[in-house]
């Protein structure tokens, strides 16, 4: 879908659909719509009364313009209660609009930035939210569907036109549109990776993507790939332990973006388990069905790097991924095994299905050696976090409250829900090993998300660090948010982009 920004009388814009937004309880379009109500002879207000339209968020109806204005039809869409209006409202509403128009032979949709100025909301922010909602709402992973699906796609929206006649606002709008297109493209990149079958998205597939990102960066992104032999030579015994049970070769990926004059160094670490069977302590069938999602952290890191040259942060950024499967094949690691991580600590295996933190032990240890100002890791880490926070909220832990506050602020602005959990030191004895330094599965049933965080903390030293447990929001089991369809969500990408923009 192409995004166009134009200066034009709203009544003279040729489009299949012109979107008109109304807050709850409002019975006619505001003056921002340039007299559209009068031009159409009051039929919008009459229809609102006739069908008892209330303006609740996402409520909508369509009327024909009868040739009285250039647009063929007007789509009236409710924004809900003005008191609770936010950027996230705009994302949800335009995600709903685009989804409802999909497949209906609507080629061109036009809209104004209704809502700018409300609650101090800038034109840039409204534009960004609108475009994010529209682009992310239009997403459909149809790669493996047949010809009928392709025919249906031909009926989808081709152009979204944003109308802005104020020259000063137009510059801000253009910036907001640009930011949104970048963030949406990076998120969609991550979604595509997660939605690929695990038979396709094996560790070498992530390597191919990392190399392609570097190749297309005009030398601005460098990549190092370590194979099994190099991983072993470097002493990443924890990562290799998890990789023992699969026939797929493991790879360690290190991407680097290093602009001139960078004063900060940030390491982004993504969990890269391309399929998690649970290992020898195998998962039940129902729990295994979606386990291609276990590389969502890696997908988020690659998504960010896919657009990092356009993003152009003023920081040196490293992307680190330990990519493997967790399988119960010959040689698979076993409960009771002890492996040595890159930082020298030994890990006693209490459960083979707590493998993500074991691979992250080496990824984080490697990141520490880069001497970054901050490490942020993203992982589908624990089911316990989902028990605590549900399917839509990321669990954040941190050893640096300033870093945590920045990430919370960025996530909130992006509409990616986040909640902080404590790194409670009183729980540390629960991960103390019997014959090794620490164990990967805590004693007892409770506090599993926190003990996983405490485990990871053993590998970051004094570096400012924030782990994001995205086990819940990385995958949507159903359409809960209008711009997030079922499947891989790309969660975390927009938060990271916002964070990097502000360094």
Automatic annotation (TrEMBL):
Presumably involved in the processing and regular turnover of intracellular proteins. Catalyzes the removal of unsubstituted N-terminal amino acids from various peptides. Belongs to the peptidase M17 family. The active site is at residues 283, 357. Coiled coil: none annotated. GO terms for cellular component: cytoplasm. CDD domains: Peptidase_M17. One of its GO terms (molecular function) is manganese ion binding. Residues 19-147 form the Peptidase M17 leucyl aminopeptidase N-terminal domain. Its main location: cytoplasm. Keywords: Aminopeptidase, Cytoplasm, Hydrolase, Manganese, Metal-binding, Protease. Mn(2+) 1 binds at residues 276, 353, 355. PANTHER family: CYTOSOL AMINOPEPTIDASE (PTHR11963:SF23), LEUCINE AMINOPEPTIDASE-RELATED (PTHR11963). Its cofactor is Mn(2+). The gene is pepA. Mn(2+) 2 binds at residues 271, 276, 294, 355. One of its GO terms (biological process) is proteolysis. This is Probable cytosol aminopeptidase. It holds the Pfam family Peptidase_M17. Binds 2 manganese ions per subunit.
């Amino acid at each position: 879908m192409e995004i166009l920004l134009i200066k034009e009388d709203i009544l003279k814009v040729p489009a299949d659909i012109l979107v008109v937004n109304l807050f709850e309880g409002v019975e006619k379009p505001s003056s921002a719509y340039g007299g559209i109500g009068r031009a159409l002879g009051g039929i919008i207000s009459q229809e609102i009364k006739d069908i008892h339209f209330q303006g609740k968020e996402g409520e909508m109806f369509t009327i024909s313009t009868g040739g009285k204005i250039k647009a063929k039809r007007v789509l009236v869409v409710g924004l809900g209660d003005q008191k609770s209006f936010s950027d996230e409202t705009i994302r949800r509403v335009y995600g709903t609009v685009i989804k409802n128009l999909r497949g209906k032979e609507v080629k061109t949709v036009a809209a104004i930035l209704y809502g700018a100025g409300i609650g101090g909301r800038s034109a840039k922010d409204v534009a960004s939210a609108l475009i994010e909602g529209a682009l992310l709402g239009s997403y459909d992973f149809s790669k493996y569907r047949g010809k009928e699906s392709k025919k249906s796609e031909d009926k989808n929206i081709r152009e979204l036109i944003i109308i802005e006649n104020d020259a000063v606002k137009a510059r801000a709008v253009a910036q907001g549109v640009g930011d949104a297109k970048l963030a949406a493209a990076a998120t969609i990149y991550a979604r595509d990776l997660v939605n690929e079958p695990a038979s396709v998205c094996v560790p070498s597939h992530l390597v191919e993507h990392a190399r392609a990102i570097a190749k297309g960066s005009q030398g601005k992104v460098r990549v190092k790939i370590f194979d099994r032999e190099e991983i072993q030579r470097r002493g990443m015994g924890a990562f290799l332990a998890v990789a023992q049970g699969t026939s797929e070769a493991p790879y360690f990926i290190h991407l680097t973006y290093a602009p001139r004059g960078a004063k900060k160094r940030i390491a982004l670490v993504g969990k890269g388990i391309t399929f998690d069977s649970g290992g020898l302590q195998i998962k039940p069938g129902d729990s295994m069905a979606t386990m291609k999602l276990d590389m969502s952290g890696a997908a988020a890191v690659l998504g960010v790097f896919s657009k990092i040259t356009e993003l152009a942060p003023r920081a040196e950024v490293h992307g680190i991924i330990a990519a493997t499967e967790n399988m119960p094949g010959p040689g698979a690691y076993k409960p009771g095994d002890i492996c040595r991580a890159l930082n020298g600590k030994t890990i006693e295996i209490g459960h083979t299905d707590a493998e993500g933190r074991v691979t992250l032990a080496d990824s984080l240890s490697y990141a520490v050696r880069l001497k970054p100002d901050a490490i942020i890791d993203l992982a589908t880490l624990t089911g316990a976090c989902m028990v605590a926070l549900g399917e839509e909220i990321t669990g954040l832990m941190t050893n640096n409250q300033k870093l945590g506050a920045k990430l919370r602020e960025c996530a909130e602005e992006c509409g990616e829900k986040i909640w902080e959990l404590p790194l409670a030191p009183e729980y540390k004895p629960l991960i103390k090993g019997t014959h090794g330094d620490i164990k990967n599965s805590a004693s007892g049933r409770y506090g599993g998300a926190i003990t996983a965080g405490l485990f990871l903390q053993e590998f970051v030293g004094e570096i400012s660090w924030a782990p994001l447990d995205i086990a819940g929001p990385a995958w949507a089991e159903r359409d809960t948010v209008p711009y997030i369809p079922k499947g891989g969500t790309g969660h975390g990408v927009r938060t990271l982009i916002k964070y990097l923009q502000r360094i």
